[in-house]
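User: I'm designing a mutation panel for Endonuclease/exonuclease/phosphatase domain-containing protein and want to avoid disrupting the core. Could you give me a predicted structure to guide residue selection? Please restate the sequence first so the numbering is unambiguous.

Assistant: Good idea. Sequence first, for numbering, then the predicted structure tokens:
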Amino acid sequence: MDRRVADRWRPDYPKPESEKTAVREVILRSAPDVLALQEVGAPGFLEELRTDLASEGLNYRYSMHLDGPDPVRHLAVLSKHPPVEVVKHTDLDFKYFEGRERVKRGMLEVSFELGDGGVFKLFVVHLKSKYTNNKKDPESQMRRTREAGACRNRIIERTFDLGVDRFLVAGDFNDHPASSTLRRFYHRGDLEIGRLVPAADSRGEVWTYYFERRGQYSLVDGFVASPKMFPLIRNGKGTIVDLPGSLNGSDHRMVWGDLME
């Protein structure tokens, strides 16, 4: 993974051991059966995480990694359960001003079997950040919304159009719940696609991202569940991990939820 170190951009600079330890502590505390990851480096870094977790008692037999158009930040899923199907969507694009652009991190689709013999799909996304180099698109709002629209349209093709009605969209949306970005995952016309799964930490706080430079806390990560998926979410809500020191490993906080079978 490339990193900024001492205000210099260092290609392939590894995450410090102290940060790796903090990330593992968060994962080990919740110990999910399926772990969706964003901003993962090359496959070797994912394998390092999988091996380190196994040495501490959390074994993920199945590993899926997506190399999208972004050469640095990738998507991944680690799972205790065998996937029924894995689809790597790297061809998603959208109109942007006078040209077309690709969804930078792509979208990772993983299907799992449920206890009733049915299947649910997990779609992992990491949408465009608010950084922009285009003055016509402040905070990349247009680009991020159109990335969401491209992902949303593909999700519909891979679910409702195929008769699949149980699915989750998970990841870093880089926008707030009422934004045009998130609304793309709620409806398309009269079609209800899903709802944001509410989540909170042990103090009832709902933020998932801390922007240190601005001293700003915001909710940008989580799950959108389809109408048929929502009843399978235990208590209809998720949990945000708030271990002491959890921000030492990432400026995002982990969100998890239990599925009832």
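For picking mutation sites, this is relevant: The chain has a mean pLDDT of 93. The chain has one domain: 3-256.
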